[in-house]
Every structure is written in structure tokens, then in C-alpha cells.
Amino acid sequence: MESLSFPILSTVVYLPAIGALLMALFIPGRKVQVIRRFALGVAFVDFLVSLAILPFFNAGTADFQLVERTTWIPGIGAQYLMGVDGISLLLVLLTTVLGVLAILSSFSSITVRVKEYMISLLILQTGMLGVFFALDIVLFYVFWEVMLIPMALLIGIWGGPRRIYAAVKFFLFTLVGSLFMLIGFLVLYFSHQSLTGEYTFEIIRFMDFNFPAGVQMWAFWALFLGFAIKVPMFPFHTWLPDAHVEAPTAGSVILAGVLLKMGTYGFIRFSLPMLPEASLKAVPVVATLAVVGIIYGALVAWAQTDIKKLVAYSSVSHLGFVMLGLFTFTVQGIQGGVLQMINHGLSTGALFLLVGILYERRHTRMINAFGGLAAQIPLFTVVFGIVTFSSIGLPGLNGFIGEFLILLGSYQARMWIFGALAASGVILSAIYMLSMFKRVMYGPLDKEENKNLEDLNVRELFTLVPIVILIFWIGVYPRPFLNVLEAPVGRVMNRLESAKMPVAVTPLEDAGIQVALTFPDGEGIE
Amino acid sequence: MTDAVALVPLFPLLAVLVNFFAGKRMSKTTVGIMASGSVGASFLASVVALMGLMALEPGQRSVEINLYSWISSGNFEVPFGFLLDPLSAVMILVVTGVGFLIHVYSTGYMHDDDGFARYFLFLNLFVFAMLLLVLGNSYLILFIGWEGVGLCSYLLIGFWFTKDTASEAGKKAFIVNRIGDFGFILGMLLIVYHFGTLQFTEVFHKAPTIFHSGDTAVLVITLLLFVGAMGKSAQIPLHIWLPDAMEGPTPVSALIHAATMVTAGVYMVCRSSALFELSPVTLSIVAVVGAVTALFAATIALTQNDIKRVLAYSTVSQLGYMFLAAGVGAYVAAIFHLVTHAFFKALLFLGSGSVIHALHEEQDIRKMGGLRKYMPTTHRTFLIGSLAIAGVPPLAGFMSKDEILFEVFNWGRGSGWLLLWIGGMVTAFMTAFYMFRLVYKTFYGESRMDPEVEKHAHESPPSITVPLSILALLSVIGGFLGIPVIKKWNILHNWLGGVFQAAVEHGPEAVEAASHLAEELGLMTVSVIVAVSGIMLARSIILRRPEVAEGLSQKYSVLYQLSLNKWWVDEFYDRVVVKPLKALSDWCWTVFDVKGIDGAVNGTAWTANKTSGILRKLQTGFVQNYALSIVIGLVVMLALALI
Hints:
The complex is a heterodimer of chains A (526) and B (643).
Chain A: H1 8-26, H2 32-51, E1 65-73, E2 78-84, H3 86-105, H4 114-133, H5 137-158, H6 163-196, H7 203-207, H8 213-230, H9 239-246, H10 249-274, H11 276-302, H12 307-326, H13 331-362, H14 373-376, H15 378-392, H16 398-412, H17 416-423, H18 425-441, H19 458-476, H20 479-503, H21 507-517
Antiparallel strand pairs in A: 1-2
Helix pairs in contact in A: 1-2, 1-4, 2-3, 2-4, 3-4, 3-10, 3-13, 3-19, 3-20, 4-5, 4-10, 5-6, 6-8, 6-9, 8-10, 8-11, 9-12, 10-11, 10-12, 10-13, 10-20, 11-12, 11-17, 11-18, 11-20, 12-13, 12-16, 12-18, 13-15, 13-16, 13-19, 13-20, 15-18, 15-19, 16-17, 16-19
Chain B: H1 7-22, H2 28-55, E1 63-73, E2 76-84, H3 86-109, H4 116-135, H5 139-157, H6 164-195, H7 200-210, H8 216-232, H9 241-244, H10 250-259, H11 264-271, H12 273-276, H13 280-301, H14 307-327, H15 331-358, H16 376-390, H17 396-409, H18 417-443, H19 451-456, H20 462-477, H21 491-496, H22 501-504, H23 513-544, H24 546-555, H25 557-564, H26 569-615, H27 623-642
Antiparallel strand pairs in B: 1-2
């Protein structure tokens, strides 16, 4: 495992928080312009630093890289441990990019309590980045909870008319989820301790440890509740539309772009590699919920009258795809699933930016308040069109690659029915997205209020163009993205493969595993 | 020289990029020249590639060029690459050749439109996607083009997006196509499952070793692929989008919805002949769907009054012929008809566009008539196109349609061949009738035009009439690509034979040569009689005695209404599919989501709230209350202890 003398990962994580602290201390709240630019600068520098990881990153290995390790709470075995692999690398880059765009998008839409707003966004940034880099469960949990508060504040203070309801709902839902998750973690911790005599929260150690079947079962379902709420999977999704509708634009962008990835990230980081047998047994349940989510989310999206709510429900559908991909336990399915996390972050993030731009001009998000906008705002139309088709999964754009690999994985895993039902999402997404696009952009420009709509300005264009470039890049040349994922996905696959055998076998071999459990392989981090 | 094939899609792509970034700042002339020129350059590159291919030994005529590795995940890999072989060579020539003429035509037709640059952006993008579709060396590259042309179709049908019907039609086209794509995707997934790859050469090479003829797996794969083809090529029951697609500008209807894109399904089935040949059941289904669609669409075309709708249903019908051919294993005949149809149907659409243009967007043939004298060139070329599609020898349509019907007649298997053949013949009769109904109503007889419109009726400019003339010429001579009877003179058959190796074995060669000749001539005679009698019938009851046609439509008003209302298929779908799905969607939201799930969530919150309300009465903060509870507790405990 490589390490660098300079703690680059920690820098990426804490830079936004340090920026927030400096802002809180030294910039008076009335200097709104300075605050905005400073926040943007911090986020941008953070993005550059996260890019600087790339030259030191070796895509050829599944090991965690650039590891930073210090003792932290020795009494319980918790360490300060960070590292990066291909999966977290992509998610971190997504986070730093969206962070910049989210701040840039709030320049004109947020005019009250700008300072507090920017501080919340920056701290949120630190929380999310920490989650992706943390390799110690306690550290992970701390960052996980750190995200919660600024997000709830963003919704509750700068949100729409029902913001308090939405913020409380968001907070309680996720809190309940994280309590279950905590229980799951403690089960793992104590089980590991009782079998090895060692107190540790090290994620890598757990990844290579064979937990007993019973423990796996309990831990899996506890973690499942925690992650499934966060994803959100059907039927735990109802906090999402409310949170999205009420959140300010940047909040929605971050929520959809990054926060919704926490749950799926949890599955691929914890559930699959640590609890492979329980994961295998859970496939029928999880895959069913995933597929129901795909179809149900799409159907409900179609019924929406509020564009933001439509996009929110489309997320339920898209994340159903991700979950299905992960639970195919095939290379293609998991790679596609992780890539689809990125794709969803980009296209849904962009959709929320676009809706926000409309909202800022017209103070409404109702579909029937628009119509015929294409004639009035051509530039907006082009970007909106591209993003819409990215979301529909048009080949040549990013969404297709992820969706196709997920479906491919489902067929490689002989999940015929699941795959076929999921593929019907291809039809449904075209129905709800194009219906909305038509009603908003096409037809006669017959509403008086829309006749003076202004097209995208330069700043808004800057928030959207990077996403559009990535949409094309991933669609046309996904190799770099898939390459980075190859090794870590292979590692997860190895764990799952080793678990696949005992499932279908005799009690004798099952006993062999129990024996093996008492000799945990001592590899850990090399 | 075969490397030139990489340039073929490149030129339109470059034009798209330039137009996207600078189109607004360029003059209409520059845009038009660039757009048409790029397709022209593509055509030249296609010719060079074709010559390169011809220079190779017949057995070597399959050149693959892989540009880069597109998707690679585990052991699944798809390179971004092209396959140049006799089949794709024919296709790129048709796409770029007919495409070029339609681009030139469009510079005239769209000249006064505000969206001129946007129009050519989409049209060039379409050509690029269509070239990917026919050049791709794997199902997945084909699929990029497949969905890409679907996108362009969506954009161009809804080109005049302020019109509600236009944007609705575009949406409908895309969604119905997606239903087909759903099948296509599942088909591809199964191919990967069985073959581990989507590369054409590998799949087709391995197919006979992996599957036995009639295996369920290959049946399912080919059926799913065919569902995709039904969507793209507007076959029953997915035909409903194509007539509505006529909302787009007329050159678009000519290029996309007649000559090229809608034939993609036929191309895909022919390309996959190695798979389809292994599933006789699928082939029979393809043939039946094709024949039924041909007949069905023709019955609708009989009574339509919109000039473009007649042609649209005619296209659906002709596509049915192509599938009929593919279904009986006559892939060369299917491609032959695809090529000649591209010539004469593009011609007919462009001719109708010329008429519509001259009459200020009038499309109703009841308000036309006698246009022959105002538009001599349009009339003459339209007439040639009509003769070709009606099957009058030796025009292109006669040659290709006749070959299809001959192949059907000689179909080696299946007992229903006679029914299919009769269906094909009846369709041919109706085709001749409805086309000449159209010709007579438009160009002959008394004028029924608005006097104001008639005053301005005029022949179109050269940018329109020159492409018409060239296409008319092609509609005349195009048939000689596939000269019947004497097989060694049949250029297309010799050229494509190698691609469909598997199919040829039980194709026409199986028929005895001597009886072959007599039979072919006999069938030809029947075709000619059918075509001529269709034309004569139209002449007598449309042109000479319109009151007869009127009387017939009254006497058989049920049939007439059935045809006029397109068999109420749209209404049927609306009631059986769209409305229930919409109701389900609403139910999921308002009942299941809001009342069900969220009701439970908020109910939990409400219960917690109420419970805490009750519990907090225990802690009122008043000392008296606490004292009281202490006393009660004491009493209770004493009582318990004493009892």
C-alpha cells in the first residue's frame, strides 16, 4: 500500500470545513459577494486538490491507497484511517465537482443568510468526502452523521413553504436509518472481537473476515435498513420527494448527486464484501425491491405535476437500477451499478440545476405553468434536452452505459425476470421524461409570464457545461471510468465468489467455514 | 481503399459539430452547402469503399475496422468499430446517395424556415446515426445508431415544436420505438449470455455450433430482435407511430420515414440471418407479420385523404413486403426491395412535398386536382414513382416486388405459403389502386383548389426538381440491379449472396432451373395483370366516374369507415393500454404513496406525538400531583403486601 508523506486525502476532506471556519471568523455576513466568491474559491481549490490524487493513484490494484493512519480512540480500537480505491475515487471527484457547481448555482438564488448557507454547504462537503475516504467504521459513522445536520439546515432554513416538515422528515428518516446501521456495525464489531480477541473497527479487516452465518444475517438486515432508507429504496423513499421539493436548488443537487449515493456506497463497501453469504441469501428480497422501485418510481414520476417532484421520483427509479446492478453479483452488474451512481449524480444534478433556473425566473415548478419555452430560451432547451436524454439512457450518453451493464449483469446472473422487468424502465423513463419535456418546452408559448424569460446567463452556463461534457465523455469513452472500477469491483467479486460456493452445498463444507472462522486471515492492510 | 469507410460517418459528424457551435452565425447558404456537401462527401467515400471491396476476392469481402475499445467490463468487450461488407456497402450507398439528394432538396424546401440551421443539424446528425447503424460491427454499435436515428426522428417529427400535434407525434414515435427497443435490448442480453459477445462475425460464426435449428434459446433471441425491428420498421402492432410521423417536414418523411430509418428493422433482420435461419418458427412469424402488415396498411391507404398519410401507410405496407421476403428466407429480395423502395418512395414523398409547397401547405387531396398543368416535372416524376410502386415493368418496384412474390411462391417450407402469396398479390392490387387514386386526385381531373391557392400554384425550383428527376431515373433503372430469370445477370444477388450464405441453400437455387423459368414468367404475368387492373380500376372510378367511388363508400360504409379510421387501432390502444397505465400511475401516487406509505409514516409520527402528550401528564411539575401519585403508590403497595 502506497502512502504519501503529504496527507492529501485529509486535505481534500477538511479544506471545505477550514474554509467554513475562516469564513465564520473573518468575513462579516453583510459582505455577500465576498462570501460567495470565497466559498466558490474554497470548493474549487478542493476540486483541484482532489484531482491531484490522480497522479498518485494506481488503478491496477484493489488495495486502498494513499492511506493515512493514526491512533484515535485506542480504548475501543477506533483509528483515524483513510484511504482511497477506485470506487471512492470516482465518488469523491463527483462530490468535489458538484460542490463547485452547487455553490455557483446559489449565487443569485440565495440572498438571505448567505454566510450561514455557504458554511452549511462547505461543512456538508467535508462530511460527504469523509464518508467516502473513511476506512474505520467509527470515523465513517462520524462523517455520516456530520452530513445530516447541514443538510437538514439547508432544507429547513432556505427551503420552500413546507420546509420544516420536510427537514424534520428527512432528519428522522435518516436518523432511524443510521441507528439501525450503527446496530449493524456493533454486531460486526463484537462478533469480530469475540472470534479474534481483537478490538477493531477497521473496514479492510472486516472485508477479509468471514463472519459466521448467523451474525451475517442480523448484521446484513440491520445495515440494510440503514442503507436502504438512504438510497432510498422502495418503500422507504417517501422522505425524498418532500426533501427535494422543499430544498433549495443546491441542496437538491447535492442531495440527489451525492447523498443518495451514500446508501448504495454502503452496500458495496460493507454489505457485499463483509457479509457475502447473507447478501447472496438476500438477493430475492433486494432485487425485488429494486425492480419494484424502478417501475413504481417511474409510474409515480409520470403522475407528477411538479417538475422537481418528478425528478425526485425518477431518482427512485434510477437507484433501483443501481441496486439491481449491485445485487447481480457480476462484474458487469456491479461496475454498471457504480457507474450508474456517477451518471445519476450528473444527470439528476443537472436536472435540478435546470429546474432551479426556471424556478428562479418564474417562482413556480408546476409543469402546467410552462409550455413552449423552446422558442424563448433556446440555449436552455439544448442543455435540458441533452440532460433529459442522458436520463432516458440514450446510447452515446452516459446513462446508457450504466443501464446496459446493469441489465447485462442481471442476465449473466440468470435473473431473467428481474432483468426483463428492469428493462421495461427503458420505456417508462421515455414516457415520463418526454411527456414532461414536451409540456414544458414544446407547444405554443401561450403564457404571458413566459414570454420574457431570459435564457441561460454565463454563470448558469458554467454550472451546466461541465456536466454536459461529462455526460458525453462517459457515453462515448467510458474506459477510464470503468478501468478505475475494475480492481475494486474484482475484490468485491472475489469475496462474493468465495461465498457462492458454500451456499449451495453440504453441511460438511459449511462446518469447514466455521472452522476457518477461528483463524481470521491476518492480512489486513498490506 | 476499404479504409475510406471510416470517413463515411465522419463527414456528417463534422458538419454536425460545426453547425452546433457556429450554425447560428452562418448564412443559410453556407449551412446548406456544408450540410449537403458533407453527405455528398460521404457518398464519395462510400463509393471508394465499395470499389475497395470489389477489388477483394469474394470470400474476403468482410473488412472490420476497430477504432477503440468502447465498453470493457470483465470479459465483456465492445470495440467501437465498423464492418464493411457487401450488405453494409449497399446500405451506405443508399443512405448517403438518397440522403444527399434529399439534403439538396431540403435547401430549397426549407429555405424560408427560421430553423434552417437547426434543421440541417438534425438531418446531418440523422445521417451520421444511420451510418453508424448500418456500419456497426456489433449489435451494440448498431444500437447506438438505432437509438440515434430514433432521437433524430423525434427531433425532426417535432421540428415545428410549437405545433402541439407535431411534438406529440415525435414523442409517440420515440416511445413506441422504445417498446421495440425493450425487446431488442433483451435480445442482445441473451446473445451475450450465450455467445459472450455482441460482435457480428463472432456471433454468426458460432451460431450454428451453439444452437441447433429450432432451439428455444435462439427462438427467443430472434423473436426479441424482431420486436425491435417491428418498432423501428412500423410493423403491426407497433405501426401506429409512422403515420403520425408525417407531422415532420416532408423531406424528413422522405429520408427518415420512407427511405432509410424505417428500413433499419429489415436491415437488422437480414444482418442477423444466421440467427434467424436457426429458428424456422421466428421466420414464419416474420413472414406472417410482414404479409399481414402489408395487407392491413394497404387497406387503410385506400381511403386516406392526406397525401402524406397515403404515402405513410404505403410505406408501412411496403415494409411489410420486405419482412415477408426476409421471413421466407429471401434476404436478397428484401434488401433489393429496400433499395428500390428507397428510390421510389423518396421520390413520391419529395414529389408530394413539391405539391404541398406549391399549394401553401395544403395536404388534402380533396382540395387538389389538375395540378398536372402547373407542375409538369413534379407530375411526371410522381407518375414514374407511382408506376414503379404499382409494379409496372420494367420499373424498379416491379422487379423487386416480383422477386419477393416469386420467392414466397417457392417457399420451401410452411404450408401457408399460398395464403401469404395471395396476400401479397392482393396488396399489390390495392397498391396500384391507391397510388393511382392519389395520382388522379392530385394531378388530373378538375381542379378543386382554392382559387386563391390555385393562382399561386407553380412548379418548384431546380433544387427540388433536379433531385426529383434523379430519383425518377433511379426508379426506372434501379430494378436492373436484380434482373429476374437469369440469375447470373442478377448483380445484387451475386453481390450479396455471400452475406446470406446460410439462407441461399434453400433459396431459389433449390428450384429446378427449367420449371423455374416458366414459373417465373408465369408469375410475372400475373403480377402485371394485377398491377394494371389496379390502375385501371382507379382510372375508372376515381377519374372517370367519381360517383361510383362515392356510391361504394356509402354502400360499404362499415368497411369504408374501418379503413378511413385506420381500424381504430389508436383508439383501442388508448383505451386498453394508455389510459389504464395512466390510471395505475395516478393510483400509485395518490393512493399508494401519499395515503399508504406516507400515511403510515405520518401515522407513526402522530402516534408518537399523542403518546408523548399523554405521558407528559405524568410530569406536570406540580408537587401536589407528585405527592398524590406517591400516596396512591403507597396505598397500592400496602394493599398488595397485605393481601
